[in-house]
Design a protein that fits this description.
The protein has 77 residues and is α+β, with helices and mostly antiparallel strands. It has one helix at 27-49; strands at 3-9, 15-16, 22-23, 56-60, 66-71. A hairpin with a 5-residue loop joins β1 and β2 (15-16).
C-alpha cells in the first residue's frame, strides 16, 4: 500500500510538511484523510480566531508529487 503525506499550505504559500505520512490503500482513502485533517484544522482555527483562513491540506505521494488538495474552508461547508 502507498504512503501519502498531508502537507499544510498557508495562504501565503508557507508549507508545513508532514514528515511521517500514512500508509493508505488508495487515493480515495487519502482524500478522506485529507478532508478529516482539513476539518480539524478549520474547527481549531475557528475556535482560536473566529475565522477559517485560506490554508489547504495537500496530498503528496512518496515521490513528492502533489496528487490533490483540500481547502480548509471547504471542509466546513
Amino acid at each position: 500500500m502507498p504512503n501519502y503525506f498531508f502537507d499544510v499550505r498557508s495562504s501565503d504559500g508557507t508549507v508545513v510538511p508532514d514528515t511521517k505520512g500514512e500508509t493508505l490503500r488508495d487515493i480515495i482513502a487519502a482524500r478522506t484523510e485529507a478532508r478529516q485533517c482539513a476539518y480539524k484544522l478549520a474547527v481549531s482555527e475557528y475556535r482560536r480566531t473566529g475565522v477559517v483562513d485560506g490554508r489547504k491540506v495537500e496530498i503528496v505521494s512518496e515521490t513528492g508529487k502533489l496528487l490533490d488538495d483540500v481547502r480548509v474552508r471547504d471542509s466546513v461547508i
